[in-house]
From TrEMBL:
Organism: Arachis hypogaea
Cofactor(s) of this protein: FAD
Keyword Transferase tagged: no
Keywords of this entry: FAD, Flavoprotein
Protein name: FAD-dependent oxidoreductase 2 FAD binding domain-containing protein
Domain RsdA/BaiN/AoA(So)-like Rossmann fold-like: 42-453
Positions of the RsdA/BaiN/AoA(So)-like insert domain: 230-400
Length: 459
């Protein structure tokens, strides 16, 4: 019966189902209805990666557990659009869990323990592979489905939801949560649009709502504090008309340093090395996104104003740089500056033109005519090019928030609340966020697995 009920439920997302009965329309419209089950009940709030993964693992370990997922939107919507529609499942270049933890600006200390030992990127890849999803690891460590389509991941998870008999309800908001005298959770569920409410009793509650205010509200109702959420993983807006003309130019490796008025001490993570992309509004690319994640709270407090110092040739020492320019001057004395850029720099002609223009040097003069002062000027710009950051842009592939339930209030080896028994958290609802590259999904898979298997074992 459970399989048939699940199949029908997935086709009719607005009907409400428990393990042992369907409720009629008249029953569903009665706001005082309290829905319960003869079996223990797990309610998962949030049908994202963490919530769905947890529900599957809980139901796998405890087949008689009634598992209900509520979501105000559509299931796995973030998974569907992530990675440009390809879904960056995890990162395959961090076999050492200590190194893996260093990719989490919020959580890098706490996640060094049992968290990734219980469910690592290798475990995530093995699970999806064993469920029919072929994966590939790209040069930078990002892991994608071989199909290059997030649908492979979504379909795999939804198939498991259906086969395991997990009940999924969309367009429903869990408005309130409280604990009864018997220790059960009493939840008020509101249909969208708000035409009626239901009350559900649950033995276990998992909040996996991402950065939604809904999750913060429920956590607060059950005694938890919330670290104020702020954006993470964003691009930098920079007002530079000449830079806009370079839109689309990429740099395989630059070194960037962020200076902020509110930060007087040296913070190593505010210096990053990696690829950078020029956009029509400023700067993006992995190195900028990592910098934005580590500087998220500082940048928020500064109104997203700061100074960015870019080294465009990080592998070339400043002394070598001067020698390269001098040697090029003698070797190509009769060529125009614009037409001859030292190949050791590995920069495009468009960017070389930008360097000359920004330093006020004519590209039409011959190398033989360039002064030592101008050579010093070029050298200085390549090693320390300063940009004023005056805002943040959106990174469309990942929407990540810093903040949420403090990790000090949960046990990472079970994902259970230290404040409220049988209450669990997983995913971005927690004050954990990773840099770009599959790390945020890995947080969801690991947390979902630990919470799900802990609940399954208890049930």
């Amino acid at each position: 019966m459970a399989g048939a009920a699940a199949a029908l439920l997935l086709c009719q997302p607005h009907s409400f189902v428990t393990a042992n009965c369907f409720f009629s329309a008249s029953q569903r419209k009665t706001s005082n209805t309290v829905i319960s089950s003869k079996h223990e009940v797990l309610v998962v709030v949030g049908a994202g990666a963490a919530g769905v993964y947890a529900a599957i693992h809980a139901k796998t370990l405890a087949p008689h557990l009634t598992v209900l997922i509520f979501d105000k939107g559509y299931p796995l919507s973030k998974v569907k659009i992530s990675g440009g529609g390809r879904c960056n499942v995890t990162n395959g270049h961090c076999a050492d869990n200590m190194i893996l933890a260093e990719n989490y600006p919020r959580g890098h200390k706490e996640l060094r323990g049992s968290f990734f030992n219980l469910h690592s990127p290798v475990d995530t890849m093995a699970w999806f592979t064993s469920h029919g999803v072929e994966l590939k690891t790209e040069d930078d460590g990002r892991v994608f489905p071989v199909s290059n389509s997030s649908s492979s991941i979504v379909d795999c998870l939804m198939s498991e939801v259906k086969q395991r008999g997990v009940y999924l309800q969309t367009r429903k908001i869990v408005k309130t949560a409280s604990v009864t005298n018997s220790g059960k959770f009493l939840l008020e569920i509101q249909q969208q649009p708000a035409d009626h409410a239901e009350h559900v009793k649950a033995d276990y509650l998992l909040i996996a709502t991402g950065s939604s205010q809904q999750g913060y509200t429920l956590a607060s109702q059950l005694g938890h504090s919330i670290v104020d959420p702020v954006p993470s993983l964003f691009t930098f807006k920079i007002e530079d008309l000449r830079l806009k003309e370079l839109s689309g130019v990429t740099f395989p490796k630059v070194k960037v340093r962020l200076k902020l008025e509110c930060v007087q001490r040296n913070i190593p993570q505010l210096t990053q090395v990696g690829p950078m992309l020029v956009t029509h509004w400023g700067l993006s690319g992995p190195v900028i996104l990592r910098l934005s994640a580590w500087g998220a709270r500082y940048l928020f407090s500064e109104g997203y104003k700061g100074r960015l110092i870019v080294d465009f040739v990080p592998d070339v020492h400043v002394g070598s740089l001067k020698s390269i320019l001098s040697n090029h001057k003698h070797k190509f004395a009769k060529q125009k500056l614009l037409n001859s850029c030292p190949p050791e720099f590995g920069i495009t002609k468009r960017f070389w033109s930008y360097v000359l223009q920004r330093q006020g040097i004519s590209g039409d003069i011959l190398w033989a005519s360039i002064s030592n002062v101008s050579l010093m000027s070029i050298s200085s710009l390549l090693k320390e090019c300063i940009y004023e950051v005056n805002g943040k842009g959106q990174f469309k592939d990942e929407f990540v928030t810093a903040g949420g339930v403090p990790l000090s209030e949960i046990s990472l080896n079970t994902m259970e609340s230290k404040i409220c028994p049988r209450l669990f958290f997983a995913g971005e609802i927690l004050n954990v966020d990773g840099v770009t590259g599959g790390f945020n999904f890995q947080n969801a898979w690991s947390g979902g697995f630990i919470a799900g298997t802990t609940i399954g074992a208890l049930a």
